[in-house]
Prior knowledge:
alpha+beta
Amino acid sequence: MLKNLVKNGRRVAIIYGLRTPFIKSGTLFKNLSSLDLGKIATVELINRTEIDPEEIDEVIFGTVIPTVKTPNLAREIALGSGVPTSTPAYTVTRACASANQAITNAAESILSGSCDIVVAGGVESISDFPALFSKRFRASLYDSYKGKNLIQKIKPFLALRFRDLTPDVPAIAELSTGLTMGESAEKMAKENHITREEQDALAYRSHKLAFEATEHGRLGEEIIHTFIPPDFSTVVASDNGIRQETSIESLSKLTPVFDKKYGTITAGNSSPLTDGASVLLLMAEEKAKALGYEPLGYIRSYAYAALSPEDQLLMGPAYSTPLALDRAGLTMRDIDLIEMHEAFAAQVLSNIQALSSRRFAEEKLGRSEPVGEVDMEKFNVMGGSIAIGHPFGATGGRVTITILNELKRRSGNFGLVSVCAAGAIGVSMVLERE
Ligand SMILES: CC(C)(COP(=O)(O)OP(=O)(O)OC[C@H]1O[C@@H](n2cnc3c(N)ncnc32)[C@H](O)[C@@H]1OP(=O)(O)O)[C@@H](O)C(=O)NCCC(=O)NCCS
């Protein structure tokens, strides 16, 4: 069993991390692109850590919905943030675990010795989603482009029908099953007998804790005061989806969105569509010491897992968590804080239920003992994605930064983060302060 993610005598330190405010799509960040958000985060990371950009060996960003104009978004972010042109950068995706993928890629580069210092993060602008022309329209454009004279250039468009002008927009749905994330969460709520009341209670908790953490300044510590272009007269310093006024009563009145007749998933107990970016500075422990940095913490282990999308789509964390704990040589009881991405309250409650279930352990994991009870006193103590928001590609960075900052405040040592992702994938990571 691997204890401590140490290879070649090297350990991965997370020096610092921050993020933009997480902003409901179509609102304050509606005119900012993923590139803009990634640059805002990276410039601030470089400024706050005072890292010499010449020292950065690589830049990695995760995103879920890339735009056609910035296929290697990370490279554009790096070039636009003062990172030297000679520093390589690349972009990754693993659906909502894309920032986690950037972080674990950075960790592996550091462990292998190919890099000492890596900037890794994630970004998403749902406001600036790429819409394509329909397939038939694109085919006409291509044929027209190939045309040798005016008639050949015009002719391909004459066969088009009005409906071919309808844009092809990205769907938050599984290609293999056709189910949206929300419909998949409905399936999980039904199969796991998660009630509407339980979901609304979790959503209420998320808003209450996130509001308190904002008021107290704990969430603010990780958030960049963002001046909004073009005139930079508006500054945003907190997440705008957190609702102080939310009550169980108002949540209970919302109509279900994905199964209007029998469903339990509402706008209130789902994470909202959100824009934002997160970014972290990672270093080999030795390098951090040499440069005089005091790391926020270290990566002790991580694990990815997957199940069939036909099964319960967003159960990834229940599969990846036991692997990450085993690799860390720890049990759930050793963990001081847990951050689990809240895609939907039904998904969170289903995963918590599975982690403590002997039956789940035996039937799905082939283990004789349950993974462990989740102590709600340690769980998402500053709220989660339902209140804070969920810019798909950025959330993995947010949970990592949040847990490290809060472990420091509480003098805790071990933190466990997990994120579920489309394609029925999950990631878990164990972080340690010492
Ligand atoms: C669920 C979803 C469709 C709702 O979208 P929406 O309808 O634009 O959401 P809104 O923020 O406008 O909220 C709808 C209504 O609920 C109300 N509402 C939302 N949250 C509430 C809360 N916590 N308390 C009280 N009311 C709330 C809003 O005020 C709004 O009311 P109104 O219609 O009277 O203005 C959208 O957020 C979504 O698709 N989320 C899931 C994203 C997803 O799949 N992520 C992938 C996860 S891996």
